[in-house]
Amino acid sequence: MEIVLDHLTKKFPGRGKNRQEVIAVNDFTFTIPDGKLAALLGPSGCGKSTTLNMICGLLAPTSGEIFFGDNNVTALPPEERGVGMVFQNYALYPHMTVEQNIRFPLENFRGKDRLSKEAMKERVLEAAKLVHIEELLERKPSELSGGQQQRVAIARSLVKLPKVLLLDEPLSNLDARLRLATREEIRRIQQETRITTVFVTHDQDEAMSISDLIVVMKEGVLQQVDSPQKVYDDPANQFVAQFLGTPPINMFDGELKDGQLWIAGEPVLRVAEGESVPEGPVSVGIRPEGFILLEGGAMHNEMVRPEITGRDVSVIFRNKAAKTDVVRSIISAEDWNHISGGEVHFDLKPAKVYLFAPESGERIRLKLEPLAQSAPQPETKAQTAAVPGLAEETAEDTGEAETMEEKSVEEIPVSARVIPQVMALEAREQMAAAVQSASAADAGGDAPELDRMQTTFTALNADGQSAEVVLETDAVDTYIKEGEL
């Protein structure tokens, strides 16, 4: 079911002496495609839950319209909209068993929709199996863990076969490990049922990992709507850039002059030829993964300390133009050369550098390039092995075709014929196309999880064993939900 919000506005009357009305949602317009999971993301008080309650029908909009498909549901009461709602506090009936809680919505059906006891029992069992709680049907809510209670709430919403599923911060009461497991369950359930789902959260990791679409909000105003990786890689303004990312983006005072970007009195990047350069001060945002550790790099900084986490190394440093006390960069552990103190130099990745107007925070879109073209770096083993035909071509150039092929199989022990999600990789100068052949539905598996530096996806081999594959996000061009790598 496609959801369309058309110029939706919600105002609440003011309180106190000034009695100034509060605009919780301001001229909100966007579309959620049929069968997709959209996350409403923003800080507390930005209007996420208010928007969700208007979609559900618990709140009436001050102005604007809501459409489910071609039907205008703005004036319909909640029970006639065909929505399922999961609340933050679960809202389970403590005196009822799990089975009774799940069955409760079905008992309120009237007329031609009324179900027999046998049909209700069958529906309850199907919903319980979907969320893996069929063995808990006789228990009371007090006898369940937080994660199990959340699954009961989801099953209760799904049992009446809603057209739209609404989730209002359903994971905020769970501990960190349980939140991770439950959000994966929500994504699995949504993919299996293909119900259009709206998920409210202030946690960017939750939104990035399970959503098809992210809607970023600030003070009731829509900031950006796009896919998770697109919002991260191409933020509409400084607020979006700073809100998404862990660790957060690093902000600097900079200047555009002489066709170059200057930070702390040093040119760090140049503006591409043909670009119209508005000279003057700018705010510069650099993602933590946007730094290249390089002796003689364009950006000179005072080293503070390294933080080694295994796969990555966080280099903490100071720069006099930074808007925070310290700056955090993230580099591969393979590139770490154990600098202990003194100066640390970086070059910058132009695609990870963003310019904003100092006052308004609006994005200044300029194509940036390195000051001098660096020598091409060799492909990593993961990149070479993952691109069809590239491993053989590279190996033939060095006379080691058979050895390269054997290493590829050892390092990525996943059958290429049953990978449910496929990624086309760009190995520096070459682009290799992914060939579609296998069905994701038949093969099983999870959608890729996209984050700041790596893209993680899960695949199944011929024996049904799962494997988690991690690739650098910079190397991932796109992913296909069915096919062959």
TrEMBL record:
Biased composition, class Acidic residues, residue ranges: 393-403
| Protein name (database record) | ABC transporter domain-containing protein
Q: Where does the ABC transporter domain start and stop, copy by copy? A: 3-244
**Region listing for Disordered, in residue ranges:** 371-404
User: Which region is the signal sequence?
Assistant: none
Sorted alphabetically, the Gene Ontology cellular component annotations on this record are: ATP-binding cassette (ABC) transporter complex, substrate-binding subunit-containing
- Bias (Polar residues) ranges: 374-383
Q: Which GO terms describe its molecular function?
A: ABC-type ferric iron transporter activity; ATP binding; ATP hydrolysis activity
Q: Which UniProt keywords apply?
A: ATP-binding, Cell membrane, Membrane, Nucleotide-binding, Transport
List the Pfam families. Answer: ABC_tran
The record's annotation in InterPro entries points to: AAA+_ATPase, ABC_transporter-like_ATP-bd, ABC_transporter-like_CS, ABC_transpr_FbpC, ABC_transpr_MalK/UgpC-like, Mo/tungstate-bd_C_term_dom, NA-bd_OB-fold, P-loop_NTPase
**Top-level lineage group:** Bacteria
Instruction: State the organism's lineage.
Output: Bacteria, Bacillati, Bacillota, Erysipelotrichia, Erysipelotrichales
Q: Which Gene3D superfamilies match?
A: 2.40.50.100, Nucleic acid-binding proteins (2.40.50.140), P-loop containing nucleotide triphosphate hydrolases (3.40.50.300)
